[in-house]
Amino acid sequence: MTAPTKPKPSLLIHGIGQLVTMDAARRRLTDAWVRIVDGVIAGIGTGPMQPRAGEASLDARGGIALPGLVNTHHHMQQNLARAYPPVADLPLLPWVGKMNLLWEELTPEDVQLATEVAMAELMLSGCTTPSVLWASVVKSSPVPGPEKEGVTAGLH
User: Fold this and answer.
1) Which value, to the nearest 10 degrees, does the dihedral of the CA atoms of residues 106, 111, 117, 122 take?
2) Exposed (0-12), middle (13-18) or buried (19+): which is 32, by Cβ within 10 Å?
3) Is cis: bond before 142, omega within 30 of 0?
4) Phi-psi region at 140: left, alpha or beta (left = phi > 0; alpha = psi -120 to 50)
5) C-alpha to C-alpha distance for 64 and 16, rounded to whole angstroms
6) pLDDT tier at 134 (50, 70, 90 boundaries)?
7) Which of 44, 99, 97, 51 has its CA nearest to residue 77?
8) What's the whole-model pTM score?
9) Residue 139: predicted pLDDT
10) pLDDT at 152
11) Domains located in the chain, CATH noted
């Protein structure tokens, strides 16, 4: 006798103002919905759609949904010191030690600029969801966070 199969997790995202499909026709659907079953997109469409019994739902009324990559480990401030010649060829731990000395001198304005550059690069590479890590102490506080820049750039 086999054990009963567990229902696959399902999510309906509905009321999407604009759904950018990125299919061959590059369709943009208005008042759209996306159904995800077991972590895979099972369907898309337009118009009203009700969740199935036991299905989670998310009202994305007026929002924009687009496919994108997720970057789970990004140090925004490192953009300002990429390929820094005095340490570029060092092994990881000596490199981190030397770079920490450089990062400690960053001002909030430096971090702001690094964040803006990083967000633009992430979007150009197809990333729509970064997980931001701040691994150094910056000269003064408060440090402008990526939250403001992410919203400005369109990342979440």
Assistant:
1) 120
2) buried
3) yes
4) beta
5) 6
6) low
7) 99
8) 0.57
9) 54
10) 45
11) 10-65 (2.30.40.10), 69-153 (no CATH)
